Amino acid sequence: MKKRKKYFFTIVELLVVISIIVILAGILLPALKRAKDSVQRIACANKLKQIHIASEGYVQDHDGWMSLGRLSSSRNWYTEIGERLGKDRNFFMCPAEKVAFGLYTDGLFTYTHYGLNCEIVGAGVSGGVFYPPIGKISAITQPSIAIWFVDNGVKNTYASDDRAYVAFRHGGTSPSGLANLIYFDGHVRGVKYTEMAPGSSDFRKGF
Q: Distance (Å, rounded) from C-alpha 169 to C-alpha 171?
């Protein structure tokens, strides 16, 4: 009977294999992360487009008036839009946002991951006071630059009318990533922190 030869990896061979695996992981992992970020941003953009369509439906049903931020003491814009879409509040969770809904005092989002541009539409009822909108949707003269909804980064508000309120969470940690903004003409744009002017000036454009 012939004895079978036993083959073993040498230490050098093992090190070479491990090095190759490490190199491949270093190449593939960033690519996988970029792909995941891209999918999340697209999913977020699709949600914003659905919100936009439902908001247009609201405008048509209310003689050209846009939904305010808060319609009553117990009814916010996303309550109205969610019912029109047949969705609950979980629909308003951005796929790229890691913080869930809950109490602001617990570090969670009290309202949604998306913010309404109240510089244009008006905050509505707040603190028992009614804050009226700027006007009907006919007041929007440049819908391609007038912002309607954005990725929201402030946990205790349903409004985003300042760059400081926007979450640049796609592809990085805010403010290093991109924020999805949807305009009155229905197009979604991913913008960087540096592409937006400080304060509220970008939220006042287009009307």
A: 6
Inter-CA distances, 200 with 18, 37, 49, 192, 205, Å: 53, 28, 23, 16, 9
- CA separation for the pair 52, 184 (Å, rounded): 8
Q: Is 60 exceeded by the pLDDT of residue 6?
A: no
Three state DSSP letters for 72-103: ECCEEHHHHHHHHHCCCHHHHCCCCCCCCECC
Cα–Cα distance, 172 to 68 (Å, whole number): 31
pTM of the model: 0.82
Give the start-to-end residue ranges of the domains of the chain: 15-204
3-state secondary structure of 133: coil
Residue of 42, 45, 122, 53 whose CA lies nearest to 86: 53
Listed residue (160, 155, 153) closest to 203, CA to CA = 160
Give the N- to C-terminal CA distance of the chain in Å, as an integer.
Answer: 93
ω into residue 30 within 30 of 0, thus cis?
A: no
Q: What are the pLDDT digits (tens) for 110-130?
A: 999 999 998 888 877 665 555
Residue 126 confidence (pLDDT)? 60
In total, the chain counts a number of residues equal to: 207
